[in-house]
Amino acid sequence: MAFLELSHVEKSYGKGAKAFQVLTDINLQVNKGEFVAIVGYSGAGKTTLISLISGLLKPDKGTVKLNDLEIVEPGPDRAVVFQNYSLLPWMSVYENVYLAVDQVFKNWTAVKKKQHTDDYIKMVNLSAARDKKPSELSGGMRQRVSLARALAMDPQILLMDEPLSALDALTRANLQDEIEKIWREARKTVVLITNDVDEAILLADRIIPLSAGPSATLGPEVMVTIERPRNRKQMNHDPNYKEIRGKVLSFLLGEGAKKRQFVTRRLSLPDIEPEDISQGMPGFSSNRQARRKKEIKEEVVEIDS
Amino acid sequence: MRETKFKLDWLILPLLGIGAFLILWFAFTKTVSPDLPTPGKTWELSKTYITKPFEKRGELDQGILRFTWLSLVMVAKGYAIALILGTPLGFMLGISKTFAKCFDPLIQILRPVSPLAWLPLGFVIFAKAKGNVSEVAALFTIAVCSMWPTVLNTAVGVRSIPQDYLNVAKVLKLSRTKTLFRVLLPATLPYMFTGFRLSLGIAWLVIVAAEMLTGRPGVGGFLWQEYNSNIPEHIILCIITIGVVGFILDRLMSLIEQRFRTA
Ligand SMILES: Nc1ncnc2c1ncn2[C@@H]1O[C@H](COP(=O)(O)OP(=O)(O)OP(=O)(O)O)[C@@H](O)[C@H]1O
Ligand SMILES: [Mg+2]
Q1: Do B172 and A86 touch (CB under 8 A)?
Q2: Does the ipTM exceed 0.90?
Q3: Model confidence at A47, in pLDDT bands (50, 70, 90)?
Q4: Same structural domain for residues B18 and B70?
Q5: Pair B96, B217 in one domain
Q6: CA-to-CA dists, residue A153 to A50, A79, A117, A227, angstroms
Q7: Which residues share a beta bridge with A29?
Q8: Do the chains contact at B182 and A89, CB–CB below 8 Å?
Q9: Is the same domain home to B217 and B92?
Q10: Which of B172, B182, B186 lies at the smallest CB-CB distance from A76?
Q11: Which of A159, A237, A249, A257 has the fewest C-beta atoms lying within 10 Å of its C-beta?
């Protein structure tokens, strides 16, 4: 039995005729202590998938289970590093992290909670910015706060939704190293959403591609067999690296890129009825009826792209 | 060079405007309306009220700041009632769609009703109230009229709280009160203060009308009395006072509002 288990999960937004199917038949198993990366296109439904695991959304069909218990609501045992940081702008770095610590470790003494908060701020190298507001921080710093907040909650599973996508390449590489280091020390179960295959290869034990939407679904998993600690420079020469990268990309660019598109075509069927001569000769009369009945049909066709 | 020119601009240009206005006013008294007192005469008859702003010579013969103070005290009371009632009401409207659907039409109907219409109703409602009926009725009118901007802005503020903040509250499983005080309230504060500022403006408009109708001592009461005693110079004094005080109140509130906007 896997630690986190999604089976036959489906999710659409909207109801009835306007329903928009985002995820179809999602099956995912994550073991305890494992680092899984999900790589997918923008708008494919990655945030939706993370929200289903965190409990912020409920699946239309199928089940999401953590520790064999069905997830029915969000909770601090599943910490989320949100795509857009989601720090509370009226609180300082310290207060943002403390809010989470205070909530999770209710029966700790104030001193202990304070110490714990400061430890995690230090862990992400933000001690100097401890009393600053999020608006005074750079994007990379905000993401570190968000990471510190999630880790300080000591969650059972850490869900990261494109934590580094909004950052420049240098900051991104920096934070990737930090995430790797933190994970090695804390050994949390992690689900990382990303749109960067290299990032996934650097960090994850296993990569699962998500096909393009609508009706996105998970593709075949790829194990990352490269030894840890992984080094960005050396990795490029690893024969495994090319193979892993090739496998993920071939799904994403090939089968997984297929947007299931539908077009509605108006079809005019051939007119086989004879001309109706009882209508009289074609003349100048303006209210003359059409003499041929055309059969017009609408047809929905799935196209390959 | 440019610096000094700019510095003078903010002082000279408004003075120029006021000067032009005084000249127009003077010309007006000499041509169209001989009954309108000239600026000079207005100053002549008003200066004791301004130079001795805190003197009390009689119930309706007091220094202008003393009157202003009396009016401000009334406004403060009525405004406080408006905020105490309006803020929670706005929150409820913002949080609950059902609540909003129930009461939104009612609010839209009550909102445009003039203070002149509420005041008599206040007298009826509080006719048997202990204490000063005219005071209670005036407070009622101020509260009922000035509450709406607070109600509506708070509701809009609550509705426009980003989903991200609510998600944080949900993932952390904050209790209801914690969600309210640590997330909802701080996120709504900038909107609330916009409402508070607009409400104060209305409260100040209403107090003048309420005083005129009730004859309570205050800037508005004084204005009405001086109209009845046929001293138009004092009417002008009152109008200028009302304008200046309203302007200062608005400035103060927007300073506070600014602080929350950047937070
Ligand atoms: N609340 C919603 N209501 C309706 N449609 C939604 C909603 N949220 C997302 N969608 C749609 O669902 C699809 C998937 O959205 P989602 O945010 O999960 O994508 P994503 O993979 O996280 O994208 P990105 O890479 O841009 O973050 C999108 O087409 C989006 O328009
Ligand atoms: Mg997303």
Answers
A1: no
A2: no
A3: very high
A4: no
A5: yes
A6: 18, 7, 10, 29
A7: A5
A8: no
A9: yes
A10: B172
A11: A237
